[in-house]
Each structure stands twice: as structure tokens, then as C-alpha cells.
Write a structure and sequence with these properties.
This protein is α+β, with helices and mostly antiparallel strands. The protein contains 14 helices and 11 strands. The longest helix has 36 residues.
């Protein structure tokens, strides 16, 4: 992903240079240099450094930094933004104070530094003008957004408030770049195509989001003109059903889920029917189905049945043009996808303004060698986002928005045993033994014997946390 500011501009000019903190109200991780570059430009930072050595009282510098501090604290606080948008008098008082400080800086400019001070003032004038105009622009785009988005979802689902925007500025990474303009919380799958089309018309970057448990930054807005579409309300879940899958000669146990269903609920529903849902990431109590598909999530059971990709019978998504895209696996091998010689998917696009499949726009059969989905020896190849052009899976929301899916379920062997092996010393010394044990069990399973369901490494921190004692 490309951040709005080039990363090289945010690096310190020299290794080990101090991260100065003269700008007031800066409670973020950014240094003064980084803030000045964002608001005034890199040239202004060079001028400030040149003037630093000729300061007398430093009053002009403090007033300039106060201007930047006021702008910065508002830009990084959606609650202050809402307050100033709602209170025109308070907003004008703040902007008037900014202009007053810049006027005082201009009065105090003298001597050989006049030209350099003027460079800073020109940049600061532009920053204040942009700051003032920003409120007008936001008010105007919000008004347009309410009208446009309101055609497709309830007004309560269009959220500009500080709480919603602050809750959707980051995910499990805690990386924060920009607050989204709006957070959308549709009630039904059928609302998604219209919302996508409306966001495109408004010029908004669309960020799909589920439980926000990802560690790759896929749900983080990089631009202020962004709309986060939260799918957590799409929580329809059917009971376990036996159905015929295309190209499979017997009925298969499946379960249908909306994109917002929490992973644990699917596992519980499968367990209630005496079956197993193979996708069990460590975030199962908070992650959602849509994110599992977009991230191609796995878990401990991936040793037996693979990741999300291996266990999907079909899924539905909305493409970037706001049309439905249904993807259905053909000739499912009911196991790991990479062992199949050929893997086929049927892709069906239909008009987003109609019911899915009602007005078909085009269809396509995607046929891929199974081994291309996974590098040999890897459970999941995170470097291959393309996955031979398969939509949705492992794309982190970059090629559309997952809305629902149907999964195949499995049955655990009748007898299960958990074996705990204790190794003392360095962990690397245990690796040869673990490799030999796995090879031994793999040989037994090929001969119809026991199968290895999973391997889990418990490190020292975990053992201390659970109070484990050697056996």
C-alpha cells in the first residue's frame, strides 16, 4: 500500500537526529519535522532549520508552531472536527486566531532573515487557507453523501460521528494514517451494490471491514476521502445442510454464512451438528467470515483440511463497479486444493441494481492447475495475492467486497488423541525430532493408519502464562 506522504520524506534527515517536540498539542507519534512536512512542505522544514541558529527570543517560532499545533490537533481529532463543524462562531474564532498569529510573525520579521520568514509565511498562509476551506468541503461532501448514500441504506447507517470514525481508523495493527470521511453500516447484503456505486460517484476510496482483527493493514484508510463499509450486520447463518455440489457425486455437509458472522459462531454451529468448520484462526472469537475469505485464513485445522480457499464451496461479492459477482467451485475435491490436478471455478457477474443472478452480465470459467495455488511445503503463500486471478480470496478487499459464502464441513475421526512432547534446551534442537515424528505419522496415514491433525508449538511465555509443570 502507498501512504499519501512518501515514506522517504518522513525519515529523519540524519541518522540519530533528535525528534524535536516544539509543536504544542502533538500527542501523536509524529515528530515536529514530520508534521511540518505534512502541513508546510519539506522546503519549509529546511528553512526552519536554517533559522533555528539565529533565533533571538524565539517568539515568532513559537507562534508559528502554535498555528501548526492548532491545525494538527484538529486534523487528528474527529471530535474536535465535529465540534467546529457544528459551531461556526467557534470555528471562526480559531481561524481568526491563526491569522492573527501569522500577522504577528510577519510584523516581527527583520534583518537578513526576512526572505526566509516570508517563505514560511507563504506556506503557513496556504495551510490555514486549506484548513479553513476543509471545513466547507467536508460539510458539502457530507451533505451530498447523505443524499446519495441514503438512497441505499437507512440514515442511521451513515455515520459521520467521531466515535464511528475513530473506531474505524485502524485495525489490530494500531497503525493510523487518516480518519475516514464516513463509516457505512448496511443492514442487508442487498444494500452493498448501491453503496459501492454511490461511493464511486462521490469519489470516495472504499475500505471493506469486518471484525478489524487483521494484522496487515487492509482495513486502514490511507486517505481522508474514504468510506469504510462495515459488514458486521451481515450476520445471517443457516443451519448445516446437505447439498449437491457441482461435479460432486454425493451430498456434502455445508453451511451458509453472511460476511459479518463471527467465526466462532460458525464453528459452534458445525460442532452442534457433529461436524467441524476447518477455518479456525486465533482471532475466531472476533474475526468475521468476510475477513477470513479476504485473508485466506487458516488455523490449526489447516493441517488436515487447508485454509479458507480449500473449504469454500461458493461465495458472493460486490465488484468495484457495484455489480454482483458469484464464484462457485466446480468438481470440489473436498480437501486441500493444491492436490487437485485441475481446479475450476464458475464466475458469474450480474447487475447490482437487480437481485443476484437475475440480470446476468457475463460468465467465465476459471481453470487453474491446483499446484499453482500453493508453493510446495507451504500451508499458505502470502506472497501470491493474485492466486491465478481468483476473485476475493486473499485480496484483502482490494478487488471487491465479500458479502456471503457457503462452506463445506468435515467430520473428525472417531478417536482423537493429543500428544504432548516436552523438549528441554534450545527449540532448534527439537526440530529434527519433530520432523522425524511428522514423517513417521505421514507414512502411517498413507497406509490407512492415524493421521496428523495439527502441530502446535507452546513457547516459554505460554507455558509460564498457563502455569505448566513438567510431566
Amino acid at each position: 500500500m502507498n501512504a499519501p506522504i512518501a515514506l522517504n520524506l518522513l525519515e529523519d534527515a540524519q541518522a540519530g537526529s533528535p525528534r524535536l517536540r516544539e509543536i504544542p498539542y502533538n500527542y501523536t507519534s509524529l515528530s515536529d519535522r514530520e508534521i511540518v512536512i505534512r502541513l508546510l512542505g519539506e522546503e519549509s522544514w529546511r528553512v526552519l532549520n536554517d533559522l533555528r541558529g539565529v533565533r533571538r527570543t524565539g517568539r515568532s517560532a513559537r507562534m508559528l508552531f502554535e498555528v501548526l499545533g492548532d491545525i494538527w490537533v484538529v486534523q487528528r481529532n474527529p471530535f474536535l472536527q465535529d465540534d467546529l463543524l457544528d459551531n461556526a462562531n467557534r470555528r471562526q474564532l480559531l481561524i481568526g486566531a491563526l491569522w492573527h498569529r501569522l500577522g504577528e510573525v510577519k510584523k516581527r520579521a527583520s534583518g537578513e532573515s526576512v526572505e526566509q520568514v516570508q517563505v514560511l509565511l507563504n506556506a503557513a498562509h496556504h495551510a490555514v487557507e486549506s484548513f479553513e476551506q476543509g471545513f466547507k468541503d467536508v460539510a458539502e461532501i457530507r451533505k451530498r453523501a447523505v443524499k446519495s448514500l441514503g438512497r441505499h441504506t437507512a440514515a442511521d447507517n451513515i455515520c459521520f460521528d467521531g466515535v464511528s470514525r475513530a473506531a474505524h481508523v485502524t485495525d489490530a495493527t494500531d497503525w493510523r494514517v487518516e480518519f475516514p470521511l464516513v463509516v457505512l453500516k448496511p443492514d442487508y447484503e442487498s444494500e452493498i451494490p448501491g453503496l459501492v456505486k454511490a461511493c464511486v460517484e462521490l469519489g470516495l476510496t472504499i475500505i471493506p471491514r469486518g471484525g478489524g482483527t487483521g494484522y496487515t493493514g487492509g482495513a486502514i484508510p490511507l486517505y481522508a476521502m474514504s468510506a469504510v463499509i462495515n459488514t458486521e450486520k451481515l450476520e445471517d447463518i443457516d443451519g448445516v445442510k446437505s447439498k449437491k455440489l457441482p461435479g460432486v457425486d454425493h451430498e456434502v455437509s455445508t453451511i451458509f454464512t453472511g460476511a459479518g458472522v463471527v467465526t466462532r459462531r460458525v464453528s459452534d454451529a458445525a460442532e452442534h451438528a457433529g461436524l467441524v468448520f476447518a477455518v479456525d484462526p486465533t482471532s475466531a472469537d472476533a474475526s468475521c467470515i468476510g475477513g477470513n475469505i479476504a485473508m485466506n485464513a487458516g488455523g490449526k485445522k489447516a493441517v488436515l483440511w487447508g485454509t479458507a480457499l480449500d473449504n469454500l464451496a461458493s461465495w458472493r461479492m460486490v465488484d468495484p463497479e457495484g455489480n454482483w459477482l458469484d464464484v462457485e467451485r466446480l468438481d470440489h475435491n473436498l480437501g486441500k486444493i493444491h492436490v487437485a490436478e485441475k481446479v475450476r471455478f464458475q464466475l458469474t457477474w450480474s447487475d447490482g441494481l437487480s437481485e443476484p443472478g437475475e440480470r446476468i452480465l457475463k460468465t467465465e470459467i476459471l481453470e487453474v492447475e491446483g499446484k499453482r495455488f500453493r508453493k510446495e511445503g507451504l500451508g499458505k503463500d502470502v506472497t501470491d495475492k493474485f492466486l491465478s486471478g481468483l476473485p476475493g480470496v486473499q485480496k484483502e478487499g482490494c478487488d471487491g467486497l465479500i458479502t456471503s459464502a457457503t462452506w463445506i464441513l468435515h467430520r473428525m475421526p472417531k478417536f482423537m488423541r493429543t500428544v504432548c512432547l516436552e523438549f528441554f534446551g534450545q527449540a532448534q534442537e527439537a526440530i529434527p525430532s519433530i520432523v522425524e515424528i511428522k514423517a513417521y505419522l505421514d507414512g502411517l496415514s498413507k497406509a490407512g493408519g492415524p493421521i496428523l491433525a495439527g502441530l502446535e508449538h507452546l513457547d516459554d511465555r505460554y507455558l509460564r502464562a498457563v502455569g505448566y509443570s513438567t510431566k
